[in-house]
Amino acid sequence: MTLSFFAAHPAWLAAALFTASLGLASCGGSASEQATETTTTTETTAATAAASKPVKPAGAAPAWAPNIAPEMQTIIEKLASLQGPTPPETLTPAQVRKAPSATDATMAVMKDFSIPVPPSPLDTMSREVAPGVKARIYVPKGATGPLPVVVYYHGGGWVIANLDTYDPSVRALAEQTNAIFVSVAYRQAPEHKFPTAHNDSFAAYQWVLKNAASIKGDSKRVAVAGESAGGNLAAAVCMMARDKGVMQPKHQLLVYPIADYSMNTPSYQHNAQAKPLSKPFMGWFFKHYLRTPADGDSPLISLVKAPDVKGLAPATVITAGIDPLMSEGKAYADKLQAAGVAVKYQNYDNVTHEFFGMGAVVPQAKEAQALAAGELKNALK
Questions:
Q1: How many Cβ atoms from other residues are within 10 Å of residue 64's Cβ?
Q2: Assigned domain for 255 exists
Q3: For residues 130 and 207, is the Cβ–Cβ distance under 8 A?
Q4: Beta-carbon contacts of residue 4 (< 8 Å; ≥ 6 apart)
Q5: Residuewise pLDDT in 10s, the chain (381 residues)
Q6: Where, by residue number, does the polypeptide cross the bilayer (predicted)?
Q7: What is the C-alpha to C-alpha distance for residues 358 and 106, in angstroms, rounded to an integer?
Q8: Residue 219 designated active-site
């Protein structure tokens, strides 16, 4: 986030400073660029020490989600107030990258309702895992290893967001699994078109297999995980590993993955105007990442059209009911299961895309994180 944005939004500056004081990352941090970084534990402020208040939305449920959970609606309302009325699909990638994210809205809601933030028992460091590709590595404090490793790919439609935007998801999973997480900053579009993000993601996975010991990890216990575009990348890495004769991950965690270019599924029709991801916004992501519409038919993009998914890693697939991507996530889970792949599928009805990292506010997110962490732990024993 730029200084010009903060100058224009003094209230948001206060919120950002508040969350920064808690050691949380917001969308514009640059910690991942440092050679080495260590998470520090700070004492909670008087505001966070105070008892939290029930999270309640200010207005009525939106027409596009009459049954939305109240905590989810509160975050959506906060996001709308931070972003303003301009639809993101009418902006440039540079402009959308500077805009507040769902993570920023969650942090602001935590401040508004005095929700405390516990210190994180994780250390972090940065590594280059491929030419031009860095990763932030989360290691449980005091770890002696070797620990299992999860290679994580963030969302953002292959165009926006960064390691900080999805930091809450990674921390929640790392803390609950006691595993090392390698969060990959793959190169993004439109500067780097398909299949760059996919190739970077596979290269990062290979780096972990070869270098796990250097980060206190066990190269024989490696899984992949991701949200949205990152869920697509995690699934694609499994396909690429199988096809290239590389060790298959022990598990793949796919949280509302992009799995179908058609944008004509039942959930696209029902949730066309949903927030923070709508059908027009998803089309914007495809436009910027794909070289031509023909790329959309690649099995690396349209996972549901892959000719063969046999031999892929066991999967946990999580979807959100108020999300254009819900139907394709379920369809891919069904496709894997039909091919003999062990699958745990769970949909959370009353929440939207991006809910997974909101465990501090949204109860369904906390449930989803616990489910995902449990499946990862079982697979990485």
A1: 15
A2: yes
A3: yes
A4: none
A5: 333 333 333 333 333 333 333 333 333 333 333 333 333 333 333 333 345 689 999 999 999 999 999 999 999 999 999 999 999 999 999 999 999 999 999 999 999 999 998 888 999 999 999 999 999 999 999 988 799 999 999 999 999 999 999 999 999 999 999 999 999 999 999 999 999 999 999 999 999 999 999 999 999 999 999 999 999 999 999 999 999 999 999 999 999 999 999 999 999 999 999 999 999 999 999 999 999 999 999 999 999 999 999 999 999 999 999 999 999 999 999 999 999 999 999 999 999 999 999 999 999 999 999 999 999 999 999
A6: none
A7: 7
A8: no
pTM score of the predicted model: 0.88
Angle (CA) 354 270 97, round 5°: 35
* From 154, 198, 288, 353, active-site residue: 353
Please name the residues in contact with 214: beta carbons below 8 A apart, sequence gap of 6 or more.
none
Range of the domain at 173: 122-379
Q: Helices marked H in 160-264 — which ranges?
A: 167-177, 196-211, 229-243
Q: Edge-to-edge, what's the strand order for the sheet holding 133-140?
A: 122-130, 133-140, 180-185, 147-153, 217-227, 252-255, 315-322, 343-352
CATH number at residue 354: 3.40.50.1820
Cβ(343)–Cβ(337) below 8 Å: yes
Q: Which amino acid is at 140?
A: P
Residue 353: active-site member:
yes
- Could you tell me if residue 113 is inside a domain? no
Number of domain units in the chain: 1
295 is catalytic: no
Catalytic residue of the set 228, 267, 302, 327: 228
Identify whether 89 is part of a domain: no
- Residue 136: beta bridge partners? 126, 183
Q: Which helix (H) or strand (E) holds 7?
A: helix 3-8
CA pair distance 371, 16, nearest whole angstrom: 30
Catalytic hit among 101, 198, 323, 327: 323
46 located within any domain: no
